[in-house]
Design goal:
By secondary structure, the chain is of the alpha/beta class. The chain contains 18 helices and 15 strands.
Protein backbone atom coordinates (compact mmCIF):
# COMPACT_ATOMS: atom_id res chain seq x y z
CA UNK A 1 0.00 0.00 0.00
CA UNK A 2 1.39 3.39 -1.03
CA UNK A 3 0.67 6.50 1.01
CA UNK A 4 1.51 10.03 -0.08
CA UNK A 5 1.49 13.62 1.12
CA UNK A 6 2.49 16.88 -0.53
CA UNK A 7 5.51 18.54 1.04
CA UNK A 8 4.81 22.07 2.21
CA UNK A 9 6.30 24.94 0.20
CA UNK A 10 7.61 22.48 -2.41
CA UNK A 11 6.23 21.16 -5.67
CA UNK A 12 7.04 17.62 -4.51
CA UNK A 13 5.31 14.77 -2.75
CA UNK A 14 6.47 12.16 -0.27
CA UNK A 15 5.48 8.57 -1.02
CA UNK A 16 5.92 5.77 1.54
CA UNK A 17 5.10 2.07 1.67
CA UNK A 18 4.56 -0.62 4.27
CA UNK A 19 8.29 -1.46 4.27
CA UNK A 20 9.07 2.01 5.64
CA UNK A 21 10.79 3.03 2.40
CA UNK A 22 10.20 6.50 1.03
CA UNK A 23 10.60 8.43 -2.21
CA UNK A 24 10.32 12.14 -2.93
CA UNK A 25 8.76 12.70 -6.35
CA UNK A 26 7.31 15.47 -8.44
CA UNK A 27 3.57 15.62 -7.96
CA UNK A 28 3.04 14.48 -11.54
CA UNK A 29 5.28 11.44 -11.01
CA UNK A 30 3.53 10.66 -7.74
CA UNK A 31 0.16 10.65 -9.51
CA UNK A 32 1.54 8.40 -12.26
CA UNK A 33 3.07 6.01 -9.71
CA UNK A 34 -0.10 5.66 -7.69
CA UNK A 35 -2.15 5.20 -10.84
CA UNK A 36 0.21 2.47 -12.09
CA UNK A 37 1.20 4.51 -15.15
CA UNK A 38 4.95 4.82 -14.47
CA UNK A 39 6.75 2.90 -17.23
CA UNK A 40 10.16 1.25 -17.23
CA UNK A 41 11.49 4.08 -19.41
CA UNK A 42 11.06 6.55 -16.55
CA UNK A 43 14.34 7.67 -14.92
CA UNK A 44 13.12 6.67 -11.43
CA UNK A 45 11.47 3.36 -12.40
CA UNK A 46 14.22 0.98 -11.25
CA UNK A 47 14.88 3.04 -8.14
CA UNK A 48 11.21 2.82 -7.18
CA UNK A 49 11.16 -0.88 -8.06
CA UNK A 50 14.06 -1.51 -5.65
CA UNK A 51 12.27 0.46 -2.93
CA UNK A 52 9.17 -1.68 -3.31
CA UNK A 53 7.08 1.22 -4.62
CA UNK A 54 6.39 -0.73 -7.81
CA UNK A 55 5.34 -4.35 -7.63
CA UNK A 56 7.86 -6.75 -9.12
CA UNK A 57 6.70 -9.06 -11.90
CA UNK A 58 5.79 -12.36 -10.27
CA UNK A 59 5.41 -10.79 -6.83
CA UNK A 60 7.94 -11.45 -4.08
CA UNK A 61 7.31 -8.22 -2.26
CA UNK A 62 5.36 -9.79 0.59
CA UNK A 63 8.42 -11.50 2.05
CA UNK A 64 10.40 -8.26 1.98
CA UNK A 65 7.55 -6.40 3.69
CA UNK A 66 7.37 -9.06 6.39
CA UNK A 67 11.14 -8.91 6.98
CA UNK A 68 11.05 -5.11 7.20
CA UNK A 69 8.12 -5.29 9.62
CA UNK A 70 9.95 -7.78 11.86
CA UNK A 71 12.99 -5.50 11.98
CA UNK A 72 11.04 -2.33 12.77
CA UNK A 73 8.82 -4.02 15.34
CA UNK A 74 11.53 -6.10 17.03
CA UNK A 75 10.85 -4.24 20.30
CA UNK A 76 7.64 -6.27 20.70
CA UNK A 77 9.68 -9.34 21.60
CA UNK A 78 11.21 -7.58 24.59
CA UNK A 79 8.20 -6.36 26.53
CA UNK A 80 8.67 -3.45 28.96
CA UNK A 81 12.35 -2.47 28.96
CA UNK A 82 11.99 0.81 30.88
CA UNK A 83 10.98 0.54 34.55
CA UNK A 84 10.40 3.83 36.39
CA UNK A 85 10.49 4.00 40.18
CA UNK A 86 8.84 7.12 41.61
CA UNK A 87 10.57 6.99 44.98
CA UNK A 88 9.01 10.17 46.37
CA UNK A 89 6.58 12.91 45.42
CA UNK A 90 8.37 15.44 47.64
CA UNK A 91 10.21 18.33 45.95
CA UNK A 92 11.52 21.79 46.86
CA UNK A 93 10.83 23.29 43.42
CA UNK A 94 7.48 24.76 42.34
CA UNK A 95 7.64 24.46 38.55
CA UNK A 96 4.60 25.97 36.86
CA UNK A 97 4.46 23.23 34.26
CA UNK A 98 4.84 20.32 36.70
CA UNK A 99 2.58 17.45 35.74
CA UNK A 100 1.98 16.19 39.29
CA UNK A 101 0.98 17.92 42.48
CA UNK A 102 4.26 17.89 44.38
CA UNK A 103 4.47 17.41 48.14
CA UNK A 104 6.49 19.65 50.46
CA UNK A 105 9.95 18.37 51.37
CA UNK A 106 8.87 17.70 54.95
CA UNK A 107 5.55 16.05 54.11
CA UNK A 108 4.82 12.50 55.22
CA UNK A 109 3.14 9.73 53.28
CA UNK A 110 4.63 10.58 49.88
CA UNK A 111 7.62 8.20 49.82
CA UNK A 112 7.75 4.70 48.38
CA UNK A 113 7.97 2.01 51.06
CA UNK A 114 10.64 -0.69 50.92
CA UNK A 115 7.89 -3.31 50.79
CA UNK A 116 6.51 -1.73 47.61
CA UNK A 117 9.98 -1.16 46.16
CA UNK A 118 10.96 -4.78 46.72
CA UNK A 119 7.78 -5.99 45.04
CA UNK A 120 8.44 -3.66 42.09
CA UNK A 121 11.91 -5.18 41.73
CA UNK A 122 10.28 -8.58 41.29
CA UNK A 123 8.11 -7.12 38.52
CA UNK A 124 11.24 -5.78 36.79
CA UNK A 125 12.78 -9.24 36.58
CA UNK A 126 9.47 -10.80 35.46
CA UNK A 127 9.61 -8.67 32.30
CA UNK A 128 11.18 -10.65 29.42
CA UNK A 129 13.56 -7.96 28.09
CA UNK A 130 17.25 -8.83 28.27
CA UNK A 131 18.25 -5.14 28.33
CA UNK A 132 16.51 -3.20 31.10
CA UNK A 133 16.63 0.44 32.18
CA UNK A 134 15.66 1.26 35.76
CA UNK A 135 14.95 4.97 36.15
CA UNK A 136 14.40 6.92 39.37
CA UNK A 137 12.00 9.85 39.33
CA UNK A 138 10.07 12.08 41.72
CA UNK A 139 9.31 14.66 42.98
CA UNK A 140 12.96 15.05 43.67
CA UNK A 141 14.27 11.48 43.94
CA UNK A 142 17.53 12.59 45.56
CA UNK A 143 15.50 13.30 48.72
CA UNK A 144 15.25 9.51 49.05
CA UNK A 145 18.69 8.59 47.84
CA UNK A 146 18.88 6.05 50.65
CA UNK A 147 16.03 4.14 49.00
CA UNK A 148 17.65 4.47 45.58
CA UNK A 149 20.85 2.93 46.96
CA UNK A 150 18.94 0.04 48.48
CA UNK A 151 17.02 -0.63 45.25
CA UNK A 152 20.20 -0.54 43.13
CA UNK A 153 22.08 -2.88 45.44
CA UNK A 154 19.15 -5.31 45.57
CA UNK A 155 18.82 -5.34 41.78
CA UNK A 156 22.54 -5.88 41.32
CA UNK A 157 22.51 -8.78 43.76
CA UNK A 158 19.50 -10.43 42.09
CA UNK A 159 21.03 -9.86 38.69
CA UNK A 160 23.86 -12.22 39.58
CA UNK A 161 21.19 -14.87 39.04
CA UNK A 162 19.10 -13.27 36.27
CA UNK A 163 22.04 -12.05 34.15
CA UNK A 164 20.26 -9.12 32.50
CA UNK A 165 21.91 -6.07 30.97
CA UNK A 166 20.73 -3.36 33.38
CA UNK A 167 21.20 0.39 33.05
CA UNK A 168 20.28 2.85 35.82
CA UNK A 169 19.24 6.47 35.38
CA UNK A 170 18.23 9.27 37.73
CA UNK A 171 16.16 12.38 36.92
CA UNK A 172 17.13 15.11 39.38
CA UNK A 173 17.59 18.85 39.90
CA UNK A 174 21.12 17.87 41.08
CA UNK A 175 20.79 20.24 44.06
CA UNK A 176 20.57 17.47 46.67
CA UNK A 177 23.32 15.26 45.27
CA UNK A 178 26.47 15.56 47.38
CA UNK A 179 29.83 13.90 46.81
CA UNK A 180 28.81 10.60 48.43
CA UNK A 181 25.63 10.31 46.34
CA UNK A 182 27.49 11.22 43.16
CA UNK A 183 30.23 8.69 43.95
CA UNK A 184 27.55 6.02 44.30
CA UNK A 185 26.16 7.06 40.89
CA UNK A 186 29.64 6.81 39.42
CA UNK A 187 30.43 3.46 40.98
CA UNK A 188 27.11 1.93 39.94
CA UNK A 189 26.96 3.65 36.54
CA UNK A 190 23.77 5.61 37.22
CA UNK A 191 23.30 8.11 34.40
CA UNK A 192 21.91 11.46 35.60
CA UNK A 193 19.48 13.74 33.76
CA UNK A 194 18.49 17.25 34.82
CA UNK A 195 16.44 20.21 33.58
CA UNK A 196 17.81 23.51 32.30
CA UNK A 197 15.09 25.62 30.70
CA UNK A 198 17.24 28.35 29.15
CA UNK A 199 18.93 31.57 30.34
CA UNK A 200 18.91 32.27 34.08
CA UNK A 201 15.88 34.64 34.13
CA UNK A 202 13.75 32.15 32.20
CA UNK A 203 14.93 29.12 34.19
CA UNK A 204 14.41 30.86 37.56
CA UNK A 205 10.93 32.02 36.57
CA UNK A 206 9.88 28.55 35.41
CA UNK A 207 11.65 26.46 38.04
CA UNK A 208 11.48 28.53 41.25
CA UNK A 209 13.08 27.17 44.42
CA UNK A 210 12.91 28.49 48.00
CA UNK A 211 16.19 30.44 47.71
CA UNK A 212 15.30 31.98 44.32
CA UNK A 213 18.59 30.87 42.77
CA UNK A 214 17.59 27.75 40.87
CA UNK A 215 19.72 28.42 37.78
CA UNK A 216 22.86 29.31 39.72
CA UNK A 217 22.50 26.27 41.95
CA UNK A 218 21.86 24.02 38.95
CA UNK A 219 25.00 25.26 37.16
CA UNK A 220 27.05 24.85 40.34
CA UNK A 221 25.60 21.37 40.92
CA UNK A 222 26.26 20.42 37.29
CA UNK A 223 29.95 21.24 37.69
CA UNK A 224 30.08 19.26 40.93
CA UNK A 225 28.36 16.27 39.33
CA UNK A 226 30.60 16.30 36.27
CA UNK A 227 33.68 16.37 38.48
CA UNK A 228 32.59 13.06 40.02
CA UNK A 229 30.64 11.14 37.36
CA UNK A 230 32.32 12.62 34.28
CA UNK A 231 31.16 15.06 31.64
CA UNK A 232 29.09 12.48 29.77
CA UNK A 233 27.49 11.21 32.96
CA UNK A 234 25.01 14.10 33.12
CA UNK A 235 22.46 15.04 30.46
CA UNK A 236 19.98 17.91 30.45
CA UNK A 237 16.87 18.97 28.59
CA UNK A 238 14.61 22.04 28.62
CA UNK A 239 10.86 22.24 28.97
CA UNK A 240 9.69 24.86 26.52
CA UNK A 241 6.97 27.20 27.70
CA UNK A 242 5.47 30.20 25.92
CA UNK A 243 8.26 32.41 27.27
CA UNK A 244 10.89 30.33 25.43
CA UNK A 245 9.15 30.46 22.06
CA UNK A 246 10.43 33.91 21.11
CA UNK A 247 14.15 33.07 21.16
CA UNK A 248 15.21 29.51 20.32
CA UNK A 249 18.84 30.61 19.94
CA UNK A 250 18.96 31.78 23.55
CA UNK A 251 17.85 28.36 24.82
CA UNK A 252 20.35 26.54 22.61
CA UNK A 253 23.19 28.92 23.48
CA UNK A 254 22.84 28.12 27.18
CA UNK A 255 23.44 24.46 26.38
CA UNK A 256 26.42 25.38 24.23
CA UNK A 257 27.91 27.52 26.99
CA UNK A 258 27.49 24.69 29.49
CA UNK A 259 29.30 22.27 27.20
CA UNK A 260 26.42 20.01 26.16
CA UNK A 261 26.71 18.28 22.79
CA UNK A 262 22.95 17.78 22.42
CA UNK A 263 19.60 19.29 23.28
CA UNK A 264 16.17 17.65 23.41
CA UNK A 265 13.51 20.16 22.36
CA UNK A 266 10.14 19.13 23.78
CA UNK A 267 6.88 21.05 24.29
CA UNK A 268 5.12 21.42 27.61
CA UNK A 269 3.03 18.48 28.71
CA UNK A 270 -0.78 18.39 28.51
CA UNK A 271 -0.99 15.86 31.35
CA UNK A 272 -2.07 16.05 34.94
CA UNK A 273 -1.69 19.32 36.82
CA UNK A 274 0.18 20.95 33.93
CA UNK A 275 -3.21 21.36 32.21
CA UNK A 276 -4.20 23.92 34.88
CA UNK A 277 -1.32 26.25 33.99
CA UNK A 278 -1.56 25.83 30.22
CA UNK A 279 -3.48 29.09 29.78
CA UNK A 280 -0.63 31.04 31.38
CA UNK A 281 2.42 29.28 29.92
CA UNK A 282 1.09 27.19 27.04
CA UNK A 283 0.73 27.63 23.28
CA UNK A 284 -0.84 25.86 20.36
CA UNK A 285 1.26 23.16 18.76
CA UNK A 286 1.67 25.18 15.59
CA UNK A 287 3.73 27.68 17.60
CA UNK A 288 5.98 24.88 18.81
CA UNK A 289 6.50 23.61 15.25
CA UNK A 290 7.49 27.14 14.14
CA UNK A 291 9.88 27.39 17.12
CA UNK A 292 11.34 23.98 16.29
CA UNK A 293 11.92 24.95 12.66
CA UNK A 294 13.94 28.01 13.74
CA UNK A 295 15.86 26.01 16.33
CA UNK A 296 16.71 23.28 13.83
CA UNK A 297 17.95 25.83 11.29
CA UNK A 298 20.28 27.25 13.94
CA UNK A 299 21.57 23.82 14.93
CA UNK A 300 22.20 22.89 11.31
CA UNK A 301 24.18 26.09 10.87
CA UNK A 302 26.26 25.31 13.97
CA UNK A 303 27.05 21.85 12.59
CA UNK A 304 27.87 23.33 9.19
CA UNK A 305 30.39 25.64 10.91
CA UNK A 306 32.07 22.69 12.60
CA UNK A 307 30.37 22.78 16.01
CA UNK A 308 28.61 19.42 16.36
CA UNK A 309 25.41 19.62 18.36
CA UNK A 310 22.55 17.14 18.11
CA UNK A 311 18.83 17.79 18.41
CA UNK A 312 17.87 14.55 20.13
CA UNK A 313 14.27 14.26 18.94
CA UNK A 314 15.30 14.86 15.34
CA UNK A 315 17.88 12.08 15.71
CA UNK A 316 15.11 9.70 16.85
CA UNK A 317 12.82 10.63 13.95
CA UNK A 318 15.69 10.42 11.46
CA UNK A 319 16.63 6.96 12.70
CA UNK A 320 13.08 5.88 11.85
CA UNK A 321 13.31 7.55 8.43
CA UNK A 322 16.86 6.74 7.35
CA UNK A 323 17.46 3.29 8.83
CA UNK A 324 15.47 0.02 8.87
CA UNK A 325 15.46 0.02 12.68
CA UNK A 326 13.15 1.48 15.29
CA UNK A 327 14.58 3.68 18.02
CA UNK A 328 12.66 2.08 20.88
CA UNK A 329 11.38 5.53 21.87
CA UNK A 330 8.13 4.87 23.72
CA UNK A 331 5.99 7.64 22.18
CA UNK A 332 6.87 6.57 18.63
CA UNK A 333 5.94 2.90 18.82
CA UNK A 334 3.17 1.07 17.05
CA UNK A 335 1.89 -0.97 18.78
CA UNK A 336 2.24 1.74 21.41
CA UNK A 337 4.87 1.64 24.12
CA UNK A 338 2.40 2.18 26.97
CA UNK A 339 2.74 -0.93 29.11
CA UNK A 340 4.45 -2.81 26.28
CA UNK A 341 7.58 -0.68 26.55
CA UNK A 342 7.46 0.92 29.99
CA UNK A 343 6.04 0.33 33.45
CA UNK A 344 5.87 2.97 36.18
CA UNK A 345 5.88 2.03 39.87
CA UNK A 346 4.43 4.95 41.79
CA UNK A 347 5.38 5.99 45.32
CA UNK A 348 2.02 4.64 46.56
CA UNK A 349 2.48 1.18 45.03
CA UNK A 350 0.21 1.75 42.02
CA UNK A 351 1.48 0.68 38.59
CA UNK A 352 0.94 2.64 35.37
CA UNK A 353 1.71 1.94 31.70
CA UNK A 354 3.56 5.24 31.16
CA UNK A 355 4.77 8.23 33.13
CA UNK A 356 2.08 10.32 31.41
CA UNK A 357 -0.56 7.88 32.69
CA UNK A 358 0.76 8.38 36.22
CA UNK A 359 0.49 12.14 35.77
CA UNK A 360 -3.10 11.87 34.57
CA UNK A 361 -3.91 9.63 37.55
CA UNK A 362 -2.42 12.15 40.01
CA UNK A 363 -5.03 14.66 38.82
CA UNK A 364 -7.85 12.18 39.37
CA UNK A 365 -8.07 10.15 36.14
CA UNK A 366 -7.72 6.60 37.48
CA UNK A 367 -8.58 4.82 34.23
CA UNK A 368 -4.89 4.15 33.52
CA UNK A 369 -4.11 2.17 36.69
CA UNK A 370 -2.89 -1.35 35.88
CA UNK A 371 -2.89 -2.59 39.48
CA UNK A 372 -0.36 -2.64 42.29
CA UNK A 373 3.27 -3.66 42.55
CA UNK A 374 2.17 -6.73 44.52
CA UNK A 375 0.36 -8.21 41.52
CA UNK A 376 2.24 -10.36 39.02
CA UNK A 377 3.60 -9.04 35.74
CA UNK A 378 1.08 -11.19 33.84
CA UNK A 379 -1.82 -9.77 35.88
CA UNK A 380 -0.71 -6.20 35.23
CA UNK A 381 -0.26 -6.76 31.51
CA UNK A 382 -3.72 -8.33 31.15
CA UNK A 383 -5.49 -5.64 33.20
CA UNK A 384 -8.62 -3.82 31.95
CA UNK A 385 -6.55 -0.65 31.51
CA UNK A 386 -4.14 -2.40 29.15
CA UNK A 387 -7.02 -3.87 27.14
CA UNK A 388 -8.60 -0.40 26.95
CA UNK A 389 -5.40 1.25 25.75
CA UNK A 390 -4.90 -1.51 23.17
CA UNK A 391 -7.93 -0.19 21.25
CA UNK A 392 -5.81 2.80 20.17
CA UNK A 393 -2.36 1.25 20.19
CA UNK A 394 -1.77 0.36 16.51
CA UNK A 395 -1.27 3.48 14.39
CA UNK A 396 -1.60 1.60 11.11
CA UNK A 397 -5.22 0.78 12.02
CA UNK A 398 -6.34 4.18 13.34
CA UNK A 399 -8.56 6.61 11.42
CA UNK A 400 -6.38 9.45 10.15
CA UNK A 401 -3.19 7.44 10.65
CA UNK A 402 -3.67 4.42 8.43
CA UNK A 403 -3.65 6.60 5.29
CA UNK A 404 -0.91 8.99 6.48
CA UNK A 405 2.41 8.92 4.62
CA UNK A 406 4.25 9.47 7.91
CA UNK A 407 2.80 6.45 9.71
CA UNK A 408 5.80 4.12 9.07
CA UNK A 409 7.94 6.50 11.14
CA UNK A 410 5.39 7.53 13.78
CA UNK A 411 3.49 6.03 16.72
CA UNK A 412 0.04 5.86 18.28
CA UNK A 413 0.33 7.21 21.88
CA UNK A 414 -3.07 6.09 23.22
CA UNK A 415 -2.29 7.52 26.68
CA UNK A 416 -2.13 11.06 25.29
CA UNK A 417 -5.32 10.62 23.27
CA UNK A 418 -7.18 9.06 26.20
CA UNK A 419 -6.12 11.90 28.51
CA UNK A 420 -6.78 14.69 26.00
CA UNK A 421 -9.72 13.31 24.00
CA UNK A 422 -11.35 10.84 26.36
CA UNK A 423 -10.52 7.60 24.55
CA UNK A 424 -7.33 5.92 23.28
CA UNK A 425 -8.21 6.40 19.61
CA UNK A 426 -8.81 10.13 19.83
CA UNK A 427 -9.46 12.56 17.02
CA UNK A 428 -6.42 12.90 14.76
CA UNK A 429 -7.78 16.07 13.16
CA UNK A 430 -7.53 17.94 16.48
CA UNK A 431 -4.66 15.97 18.05
CA UNK A 432 -1.65 17.95 19.27
CA UNK A 433 0.34 14.73 18.97
CA UNK A 434 -0.48 14.59 15.24
CA UNK A 435 -0.02 18.32 14.68
CA UNK A 436 3.41 18.14 16.27
CA UNK A 437 4.64 15.10 14.40
CA UNK A 438 3.19 16.02 11.03
CA UNK A 439 4.89 19.41 11.39
CA UNK A 440 8.25 17.91 12.36
CA UNK A 441 8.12 15.30 9.59
CA UNK A 442 7.31 18.05 7.08
CA UNK A 443 10.38 19.99 8.25
CA UNK A 444 12.72 16.99 8.10
CA UNK A 445 11.48 15.69 4.75
CA UNK A 446 11.64 19.23 3.39
CA UNK A 447 15.36 19.24 4.18
CA UNK A 448 15.77 15.77 2.69
CA UNK A 449 14.02 16.92 -0.49
CA UNK A 450 16.25 19.98 -0.73
CA UNK A 451 19.28 17.69 -0.59
CA UNK A 452 21.83 20.13 0.80
CA UNK A 453 24.99 17.98 1.27
CA UNK A 454 25.94 19.56 4.60
CA UNK A 455 22.46 19.06 6.02
CA UNK A 456 22.40 15.45 4.79
CA UNK A 457 25.79 14.87 6.41
CA UNK A 458 24.45 16.16 9.73
CA UNK A 459 21.23 14.14 9.43
CA UNK A 460 23.18 10.98 8.68
CA UNK A 461 25.40 11.49 11.72
CA UNK A 462 22.34 12.05 13.91
CA UNK A 463 20.41 9.05 12.56
CA UNK A 464 23.32 6.64 13.01
CA UNK A 465 24.60 8.17 16.28
CA UNK A 466 28.01 8.82 14.80
CA UNK A 467 30.36 11.79 14.82
CA UNK A 468 29.80 14.10 11.87
CA UNK A 469 33.36 13.69 10.64
CA UNK A 470 32.77 9.92 10.41
CA UNK A 471 30.24 10.50 7.64
CA UNK A 472 32.37 10.04 4.52
CA UNK A 473 29.65 11.28 2.22
CA UNK A 474 26.07 12.38 2.84
CA UNK A 475 24.08 9.22 3.60
CA UNK A 476 27.13 6.95 4.01
CA UNK A 477 28.71 5.84 7.30
CA UNK A 478 31.53 3.25 7.30
CA UNK A 479 31.06 0.10 9.37
Amino acid sequence: MLRSIDLMARSQSLVTNARGEYAILSRADREALQAGRLTSEHARFHDLLALGMIERPGGGGVGLEAAAERTRKAFLLDGPALHIFVVTLRCDHACGYCQVSRAATGAEGFDMSWDDARAAIDRVFEAPAQALTVEFQGGEPALRFDLIERIVLEIEQLNEIHRRNIRFSLVSTLHHLGHDELAFCRDHQIHISTSIDGPAPLHDRQRPNPTHDSFARTVESLARARAVVGHEGVAAMPTLTRAAMADPKAVIDVYRELGFASIFLRPISPYGFARKTRRAIGYDMGAFVAFYNQALQYLLELNRRGEPMVETYASILLRHIMTPFGSGYVDLRSPAGAGLGVLVYNYDGQVYPADEARMAAESGDRRFTLGTVHQSFETLMSSPAMRWLATGAVAEQLPGCRDCAFVPFCGADPVYHAAAHGDPIGDRATSDFCTKHMGLFQILFGHLAEGDPETLRTFTAWAFNRARDEVIDAGYVPQ
